[in-house]
Structures are given as C-alpha cells and as structure tokens.
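DM between two lab members

TW: hey, do you still have the Dihydroorotase entry open?
JB: yeah, one sec
JB: this one, 437 aa:
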Amino acid sequence: MKKLLKNGCVLDPVSDDLIEIDILIEGTYIKKIDTHLPVNDPDAEVIDLSGKFVSPGLIDMHVHFREPGFEKKETIASGTRAAARGGFTTVACMPNTRPVTDSVEVVREILAKAEQAGCARVLPYGAITVRELGQELTDMAALKAAGVIGVTDDGVGIQSSKMMKEAMRKACQVGLPVVAHCEDDTLAKGGCVHDGTFASRYHLQGIPSEAESIHVGRDILLAEDIGVHYHVCHISAEQSVRLVREAKSRGQKVTAEVTPHHLLLCDEDIPEPNALWKMNPPLRSRKDREALIEGLKDGTIDIIATDHAPHTAAEKAMGMERAPFGIVGLETAFPLLYTHLVLKGVLTLAELIDKMTRKPAQIFGLPYGVLAEGLPADLTVIDLEEERAIDPDTFLSKGRNTPFAGWKVKGWPVLTIMNGNITWNQADTALTFGDFE
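TW: and the structure you got?
JB:
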C-alpha cells in the first residue's frame, strides 16, 4: 500500500528551518522525499498534512510495560498504544517484570505480544542478573540472540562492584551495552523523595544525590577498564552529569539519558506529600535540574527517555512513603518538552527532535530515527499549534499517575506511522478511544 503525505513541514538538515515537503511511502519504506510530488497513482492514499510538522518516529529507550506479571498496571498492548499516541514508533522495555526478562522464553513472549499489538516497535532489555537479585549473571549471549538490545537490572542498582565488573566484561564480549540504574542502597534505602527542601519540610526520609553519583563514578571506572558501552539511566544529579562529562572528554564510550520530569521539575515544586510526585530517582534540587539542562544542551546527556512507569490508582493512593515509585510519560513527553524547552528558548526544535530520534538510534545502533529515502517509514506528525490541557482520564495507558495533570501544553502528535502503517490517528475515534483491554 502506498501513502503520499502532502504539504508537511520538515526540518531542513542545513538551516534547521521548517520547509514544506511531500513524502511517498511504499510498503514499509520511504520511497521518495521531494517537493510537489504528483498525485498520479490511483492506489496511493493521499494524506494532506498542511500546517503540520513531520518528524522521524520518536524513540524512547526506557519504558516499563509491566507484562508479564503486572498486567493491572499496564500491558504490552496498552503500553504500545500509549506510545503510538505519544508519537513513539520505537520503545525499549525494561526487564523488571515477573518473571524477570532474564531468559530467552520471556524475551520471545514480549516480542510476540508486541508483534501482535502492532502499535509500536518494542525492543526488550535483558536483565544483568538472574531475577535481578545481583547474585548470578544471566546468559547474555542467549539473550542477545533472542533479541535484547542491552542488559540492565533497572529498578535496582548492582550493589557489588565485583558483580558489575564481571557483567561488563561479559556484556562487552557479546557486544551488548550495559544500561545502569545507579543507586547505592546504603544511602538510598528507605527514602521516598530527594534529601532536600521538600523532605525537610515534611520530615520524610530523603535519598541523597550521592546515592546515584557514587554508582555512576564507580561504573565509569569499571567500564573504562573493560571498554564496554556504558549507559546511565535517568540521570538526575549534578555530580553525575559532571562525572559523565569528564568521561566523555577522555573519549570513553559513556552515554546518558534524562527524563522530561527531571528536566522540568525539582523537589521544591512538589506541592504536598502526594505520591503522583514520587519517582526514582526522585525530583532533585533546582541546582541539579539546571545541571541536567546544561548537560542536555552541551551533549553530555545524549538522549531523552520517559521512564514511563504506570501504577494503579490504589497503589499511588498509599501515600508518599508507601506508594511505589514512578510516573507515566509516553503520552505527554513531546508537548511538555516542546512547550517548556523549545518555546521558552532552552532548546531548538531541531535539538529536541535529535535527542528523541536520531541520537538514541545512533548510540544503540538502530536503523531508525531519520527521514530518508530507503529507510523504514517511521514518522510522527505533530500539530505544533494545538494547545490543550493534559487530561489523565483520556490516556490510553492504564496508568494515570502523572504530576502534570491540568498543565496546558502545545505540540500534540496527531498521526503516527510505523513501518508504513498508521498506528495513531487523532482524527480516528476508533483508534483513539477503542477498548484496549
């Protein structure tokens, strides 16, 4: 099936200005990109994108789809539909499921369910250790052969330096990146928010920034010795940014991601002890947030990832100390970042798109993230002028746990195409609010 996208605006690769262009999709690939492509094929579906911005399909290298094991929170079907609605065509799911994604069988199950759902390309991570217990390494070669793109024990930090070094050596041998949740339990255990202003005001046990940065520093030293690609998950602390910047200056293969919520919020913004504001790592200080923005601008931080982490309403109602960590982010990431970073002059539109498309594809070796003839037809169409308030009641994710409810933002994805197939169309109510259980 052919699709001819007419009159869309794309970023000029030289000037970064918006230019009008037509895109012809044939099957799963981009056949032609040019101005004023003729409408002379009766078999082509013609879609007018006048006034809309066309981006490569967005890529999120850090999501939690909860399946298998926690289907009340999210399923692969509901998670990929949320991803498509948010403009994402490729997502990487974390292994802290039940059973943990530590075996070939679980990897195959995830891939099969993602293929069946068909809404977004799902790339699983495999666990570093069996059951994420930090005691025994997984069979990384078998996991890679089954389709994982990296190894991580996200959700828990590898506490043993010896175990982490052994994991890095094994991952390097099979050609997989080590993707690290950095958290020293001796400093973090029992904490529920950042050890700062909010924790002091409400007498809550805090998690200091050093709980993250100590592991980042340790891992950088270990990775330097091994030579493995080391990637820092959801970086949140100024000291961590400084350590990554120094490692990059020496030419070490260290990369890092940051979430929208850590870029836009700090602990001083938390209005009250409400678990919708509880995530791990926690919202840090204003100084930490400023360091994250600077690190994103200067290239120290490579990409933006949502850490989409759905939970049930009952779980989040348990209070700041007892509720699980995590917020959802797939359906709100782009408009939040466009409104509060691009429109406020912190990043250019080109810089934001690069951090959410080309750069994650580049550092993880994926053949996506670029609009070019002959490449997979992954596209996100965005109405940069559409403005509306974030309404969790309309989410396609099962999770409603967001601190951004009611925020009025611009730049909503209206059409998502993955491998030439429309996976989200705002104009199609059947796609928008169908029964996705």
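TW: got it. The chain has two domains: 2-54+375-431, 57-363. The domain at 57-363 is CATH 3.20.20.140 (TIM Barrel).
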